[in-house]
Amino acid sequence: MERYSDDDLQEFSVRIKTDYKEAKNELEILQGQVRELSETMSQNFGADMGENSGSVTSMELLNEQVLRKRDSIQALQNAMLRIQNKVYGTCAVTGKLIARDRLAAVPTTTKSLEGMRMQASGELDITAADVARRAAERREGPNKIVSKIKKPPPPPRKPSKPKRKKPGRKPRRPVEEDDDDII
Fold first, then answer.
1. At the top level of CATH, which class does the domain 6-108 belong to?
2. Which of 73, 88, 104, 121 is the most buried (most CB within 10 A)?
3. 64-98 b/e with 16+ CB inside 10 Å = b?
4. What is the DSSP track for 97-125?
């Protein structure tokens, strides 16, 4: 498997660390805005319907931005783990090196352009035969873990008791009307 040199990985690491620090700062700012808006909403909620709907929309947008930023931070952390494991810059699909230009544009990517095209075209639809073949290539066998686990027999079933019928509602007696009371 191809990989970038340790010097290259160090270079990528510096870039990812600076992006990580920026993302953490942006996340703190967004979280501060969410806190501020939620305090404002709790104090003035119910005063003006138009203002309330605008505040709710703003809160939803801020929460979406917070979620995106958290995903970005997680992706940067995963990239740092790949650098530490010395697999950063290797395509997860093809196993070839990802182009430096692509890594410069998207430092958290795990696929080369060729791998992205293969995935989009459906060439990566893996069948059970492919899984078995790959496992055999790794000399593990396709069901190594599963074959070691023996399932206990199911517990014996208890004889079920016949269900008793629940008594239904008794029909109501029709009320007989007296013609004497009619005016």
1. mainly alpha
2. 88
3. ebbeebeebbebbeebbebbeeeebbbbebbeebb
4. BPPHHHHHH-TT--S-HHHHHHHHHTTT-
pLDDT tens digit sequence for 69-115: 999 999 999 999 999 999 999 988 888 899 999 999 999 999 999 88
Amino acid sitting at position 102: R
Q: CB of 66 within 8 A of CB of 38?
A: no
Amino acid at 110: T
Is 140 in contact with 149 (CB distance < 8 Å)? no
Q: How far is Cα 73 from Cα 178, in angstroms, rounded to an integer?
A: 83
Spatial separation of the C-alpha atoms in residues 124 and 76, rounded to whole Å: 26
Supply 96's token pair.
Answer: 């070839």
Calculate ∠ Cα 37-31-23, nearest 5°: 145
Domains of the chain, by residue range, sit at 6-108, 112-150
Q: Residue 143 has which token pair?
A: 């069901």
